[in-house]
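Hey,

Quick one before I head out. I ran the complex with uracil overnight. Inputs first:
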Amino acid sequence: MEKDADKLLSNLEERLKFFRDIGADFVFKNETAPVRTPSPPGGPSSSPPPASMDIQAVHEEILRCRKCPLAAGRTQAVPGEGHLHAELMFVGEGPGHDEDVQGRPFVGRAGQLLTKIIRAMTYERADVFITNIVKCRPPNNRVPRRDEIEICSPYLREQILNIRPKVIVTLGKVATDLFVPDAFGAMTTLRGQFYDWNGIPVMPTFHPSYLIRNEGNKEIKKMVWDDMQKVMVRLGRK
Ligand code: URA
């Protein structure tokens, strides 16, 4: 009986995840209303403000963090990894099971696909920086809650202000909502164009898990590749 309920819950979570990935906001309206990192005093500037903490200190703080309920369920926090002066940064949603166990971002199936995309863009994983909106795994891979995102996003902000990438790629709707003002559209309409975050161009694209769930859909693959080609042009790699 309990097993049936677990299965039902897990199926429901999978479906909600699918709706979220395609940007069907109506399902999540109250849960994932855009939470944007506030602009610095004086309004948006054309270059990012200075970081207030050194990145090593940020990562140590993430590893110790117990500020939100996600800390209770994690094996370990996953700060992110890669080049500390990367010109390209990828931001996902939150660690999954494999990431929680290994303490590294995007190492599961979605991560393997992301690694392929990065290589196709003529980079190695070590050349870019990969992280997530929330640094601890949400239970059963559910969508991070608004309060969790609010508590965790200052870490991401500090990472960006330290690394100062030339382009940020947001993977999926949850990550995109944090960066793109009034991102009320679906991913299909948001993707493919650059937005500005404190002077840094942000390119939203579909989450690799969404590609995996729609394996065989060449149209979605093509859209992601089109988006990445725009990023490559912006970075002078094409
Ligand atoms: N999905 C994410 O959004 N992030 C990860 O690190 C892994 C899977």
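Residues 52-234 form a domain with the Uracil-DNA Glycosylase, subunit E fold (CATH 3.40.470.10).

Talk tomorrow,
K.
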